[in-house]
Amino acid sequence: MNKFKLYFILFCSAILLFSCNKSDSVSAIPIRNFDTQYNDDIAIIEDYLNTHYLEVTTSTGTDDQDVEIKKIDAGQTKMMDLLFKADGDYPLLRKVPVVIKEVTYYMYYIKLRADNSDANSLAPSKADEILTAYNGSYLAYVTTDEPLLDENGNQVIIAGIPQTVTVTKLQATQFQYVPFPSGYLRMDTAVRGWRETIPLFKSGTRVESTGPNPYANFGAGLLFIPSGLAYFNEARPGIPSYSPLVFSFKLFDVKFGDQDEDGIISNDEDLDGNKDFSNDDTDGDGIPNLYDKDDDGDGFFTRSEITINGVLPASYTQILDCSGTTTGVKKHLDKTCH
């Protein structure tokens, strides 16, 4: 993989939710101070959590874990109150810190139910692929003119002119809705807010079904993402710049990623096991191993070095070292061994 292609992938992962295309429209406005913008974003998100509540559908059908977010009007339990519920008492609200360039972002998320207990259920890594349904909206204060009403609920009319009052409301505007996904999506091309929180959920169990959703007990939740963990000053189709985002989602399935298609799943290219794939670069060429088709820079593709008689090893532990055993440095990571 050449470096231009790598940089294009990394650029896409920073500004797009789940797709990267050179024809995608991107517009930017001058960059604001990150701390100041985060303070604005978190104020909007917390206002939303304090003034809205959840209605969740629990069923065995395709509408399982469907979510409606409504404005509180009769003493319902606001979403912010879910922060004080004990672990295991679902739905619950939690927040995680994410540090980027010395700015600490706190990102709220809601887990709607307990993790799937199926042994085959997986929590995705940042390098895996996921099958997910989701509904995305952005938050903004919107100013509108509304009828001025009297105590009986009738619009006030003075000298034959209907009277109005200017009202500012916090509004969630939908920009994307994918109820039935058609394919797997790469976590490494998701916005940062997804990459930091989706691994806190687990996939479902495949069941016999003739409907569009053959999964049960899948992870489901909501994400409340400051713009600094999404698109920041980039305006995307249907999303203004500097917009905090809200997603409801269902995590149906997880598939191991192999970004460079070298026969080694990307999780096994996290050599130090710290879940940060960017610092695993064996040959020091600036391309992390999960994107590098020649991990040790010896001029031989990794895939060819680990293949034995035309067959790839079934697991990473079966890859040989230069002496023909599995105890030493793997062949594809040893520049002196071909």
Q: What is the count of DSSP helices, taking H or I runs of 4+ residues? A: 4
Q: What would you call the shape? A: elongated
Assign the structural class, choosing from mainly alpha, mainly beta, alpha/beta, alpha+beta, or little secondary structure. Answer: alpha+beta
Strand content: 25-35%
Kindly state the number of beta strands: 15
**Stretches with pLDDT under 50, minimum 5 residues:** 1-16, 19-23
Distance between the amino and carboxyl termini: 19 Å
Please compute the radius of gyration using only Cα atoms.
Answer: 24 Å
Q: What are the secondary-structure elements, in order, as H or E?
A: HEHEEEEEEEEEHEEEEEH
The residue fraction in helices comes out at 10-25%
What do the pLDDT scores average to?
A: 90
| Main sheet attributes: strand count, strand direction, barrel closure | 7 strands, antiparallel
Characterization of the model:
With 338 residues, the chain is an alpha+beta fold. The protein is built from four helices and 15 strands. The strands form five sheets. Strands 4, 5, 6, 9, 10, 13 and 15 form a seven-stranded antiparallel beta sheet that branches. A two-stranded antiparallel sheet has the order 1-14. The protein has a two-stranded antiparallel ribbon with strand order 2-3. The N terminus is likely disordered.
In short:
The protein has 338 residues and is of the alpha+beta class. It has helices spanning 3-15, 34-51, 192-197, 302-306, and strands spanning 27-28, 52-56, 67-71, 92-100, 103-111, 129-147, 157-158, 161-162, 164-178, 185-186, 205-206, 215-216, 219-225, 234-235, 245-255.
